[in-house]
Design goal:
alpha/beta, TIM Barrel, eight-stranded parallel beta sheet, 10 helices, about 40% helix, globular, binds SN-glycerol-3-phosphate
Length: about 220
């Protein structure tokens, strides 16, 4: 994905499922086009294939399982996301944690398949540990700020800059995103000032009265 970036996680919000998810994806793609901004979306697994084939911006899975395609009922192997048109995946979100031993297996497999990984971390310490597994991106997100009105860049700027610093030292190839409570263009530009290459966000767009307007305002922070 091109950076600086806004990664919009659709989660399982009702506003982002089925036909509403497709409409939201198209709205995000239009804003990205109009603003010349790098926007990536992560729809629910059930909508991944349809959305992946209908919009031209990168589409990510919200989660993948550390298994190979085969006899695994109800699981989501990286191959399934690839076939659905995904360009990458969010892994280890605080709402869908993955054991470290599974991250060790799935991160290199995604790399082999050409799927870009944004691996989440709840703390600076976890971010540093994950950086040693060499995902292309680590997203630092303090869980207590997720879904709230105060951005991590305001409430805990040292968590963002601390993650950037520790990850640079641990593995300079890994880039950092931050998220939790990101709501405005100023929150986005502050994330970049703190050393992140983008933001991971959800409710500010998905739950907005006018998601296109909300995303267009956020995208101003990328400039
Ligand atoms: O994955 C992004 C997310 O956890 C942050 O959510 O609603 O605080 O932007 P939100």
């Amino acid at each position: 994905m091109r950076t600086p970036v806004i990664l919009v996680n659709f989660k399982a919000y009702p506003e982002a499922l089925g036909p509403r998810g497709l409409a939201l994806a198209k709205a995000c793609a239009e804003v990205a086009d109009r603003a010349g901004a790098s926007v990536v979306i992560a729809p629910a697994a059930t909508d991944l294939a349809r959305i992946g084939h209908e919009v031209r911006i990168p589409v990510f899975a919200q989660h993948l399982d550390a298994i190979e395609a085969g006899a695994h009922t109800g699981w989501l192997p990286p191959e399934a996301a690839l076939e659905a048109g995904a360009a990458g995946a969010i892994l280890n979100h605080s709402e869908r944690k993955i054991p470290v031993k599974d991250l060790k297996a799935v991160i290199p497999r995604c790399d082999t398949l050409g799927l870009e990984v944004v691996c989440c971390a709840d703390t600076v310490r976890e971010a540093e540990a994950i950086a040693s597994l060499s995902p292309p991106y680590v997203a630092i997100e303090p869980p207590e700020l997720i879904g709230g009105n105060i951005s991590v860049t305001k409430a805990q700027p040292s968590v963002v800059s601390g993650a950037v610093e520790r990850i640079r030292r641990a593995n300079p190839k890994v880039e950092v995103l931050c998220g939790a409570g990101v709501r405005t263009g100023r929150d986005v530009s502050r994330a970049i000032e703190l050393g992140a290459v983008g933001v991971l966000l959800s409710s500010a767009v998905v739950k907005a009265h006018d998601p296109s307007k909300a995303l267009a305002d956020l995208a101003k922070g990328l400039r």
